[in-house]
Amino acid sequence: MKRSLVLCGVLSVLASSSAFAQADLAKAKNCMACHAIGTKLVGPAYKDVAAKYAGQKGAEDKLVAKVMKGGSGSWGPVPMPANPQVSEAEARSLVKWVLATK
């Protein structure tokens, strides 16, 4: 029983530190200049992106491409610029984090 509690504690710390790491990556790559987790700024809130794409097949790949190449028309008239400073691995990591946002 005691081992289970310790394991649960360790797993929750790892999960929350991963979330902090992704938030730090989003800040470092200037994503937070236009996006916030719970509030629309220039672009949509991450929780709204997660809700829109929940359960959609291919959503992760579509959003990775959008992060890297930019896009328009999905959330209104303001286009999302391309982000050449974001690698594909970073974009995939960020998109997974965004899609897990509640």
List keywords for this structure.
102 residues, mainly alpha, Cytochrome Bc1 Complex, Chain D, domain 2, 57% helix, globular
How would you explain this protein's 3D organization?
By secondary structure, this protein is an all-alpha fold. The protein has a single domain (2-99), classed as Cytochrome Bc1 Complex, Chain D, domain 2. 57% of the residues lie in helices and 0% in strands. The protein has helices spanning 2-28, 46-53, 59-69, 88-99. The radius of gyration is 15 Å and the shape is globular. The protein starts with a helix and ends with a helix.
Lay out the secondary structure.
Elements (H helix, E strand, L loop, with lengths): L1 H27 L17 H8 L5 H11 L18 H12 L3
Helix pairs in contact: 1-4, 3-4
Outline of the structure:
With 102 residues, this protein is mainly α.
